[in-house]
Amino acid sequence: MNYSTLKKSVALSLVALTGVASLAVAQDAPATTSSAKVFGGRAQYRTWSIGVHGGVLMPVVAIGGSNDFNRWDANLGYGLNIRKQLGHSFGLELNGTRGKLSGTNEGITTGVREFETELQYAVDLRGVINVGSIDFLRRENSVGFFVTAGGGLIAYAPKVTLTNGTVIDWKGRANGPADDRHDAKDYVKGFYIPVGAGVKFKVSERVNFNLGYTMNFVDADNVDGVYAKGTTKDKYSYGYAGLEFSLGSSAKPSLEWTNPLATMYDELKDPTLRQEVEALKNRVSAVEKSVEDLKKDSDGDGVADQFDKCPGTPAGTAVDGSGCPLPKMDTTAAATSNVTGFEKIAFDFNSSVLKTESYPTLDKLSSTLRENGGKVTVNGYASSEGTAAYNLKLSKDRANSVKTYLVNSGVNASQVATKGLGEANPIASNDTEEGRIQNRRVETARN
Length: 447
What we know:
Blueprint: H1 4-27, E1 48-58, E2 71-72, E3 75-85, E4 90-104, E5 112-132, E6 143-162, E7 167-169, E8 188-202, E9 207-218, E10 235-247, H2 260-268, H3 271-295, H4 331-336, E11 345-346, H5 359-372, E12 376-380, H6 388-408, E13 416-420, H7 433-439, E14 441-446
Parallel strand pairs: 12-13
Antiparallel strand pairs: 1-3, 1-10, 2-4, 3-4, 4-5, 5-6, 6-7, 6-8, 8-9, 9-10, 11-14, 12-14
């Protein structure tokens, strides 16, 4: 196993990466999170990042398994990655790696003695999940753990050396052994699944330092140039260190390092929000006071002060809808008399809506029926404009409007009967507007 070249390459790479990180730390100003809102969306954060990495490629994985060679080599690997952070804990990463794999079979006398495979590229799309931080309870995290998994395409060219010294190089004949094929390909291509884990360190607001390990499971059995009769699939691992650079406006925080609990706390502690809440409380208090004022009834006659035209009515006095005392009457005579002593209820042209000036008359009628009992028939009429059928319906609607008012004021519905008489029984001529106005009416009569 030749470690000299590997050590030099990795050392130079880490020195270069550390120098870039130091420069970024010196020039990068801390981002503020005060403007971030809990439900403000990804646009308020930096979500894109680009990274470089370098490390060790090995034709084995940490979980073990069968291998075609009994000794493996550690070789230099390197690559790039681009990531889009979709949430505080999840992102999508496009990753590419190059390098080589090699190994030997010691102690054998026949077969394949050693192999060396050029890894032209291994490109995959993987999900990255932030699974926790050792300083999770702190406002700002600076160390975090992650796991990754995905799928991608690998291109490679194995070269094997037999025990008799024969070298078989598959580069340039990846789709067959014949050297003169016009369609010969340099690299074998296949699908692979990367699964990994790692830890990241926040060097600055712009720079992360990552340490990771990825196991790559290839859907093929010839990555090392040896077929094991299809009973196994080849695999290799990649241990790496790298730097990742956050892209975007320096005025925005990085989404992957944002603590959502701290963001929520900052939003709730925002002085502007507190001022708005206090202003809202004051408005609610003012509305509640207005409602209490509307309900205030100083003399206790059941009519609110703002509608009471006769304030200070003695307790127990029967009043009308305006809060004024009702005229005293002989209840015995009222119970047997014809309830016809009330003014007619007038309506506008083509309308069954009660006029406000009719309310006092209706309130008196309601009081009489509630206090003395009895039943009443409400007869609706119309002027002669329109068809007789339409006017009949309009007169019924007018009678029902009066009944609805009486029932809503406390009269039992069984005490009120309604009739629509249409154009019948006019009390004035329908030839003049003055007469028609008088005919648009409702009259009451005791049953």
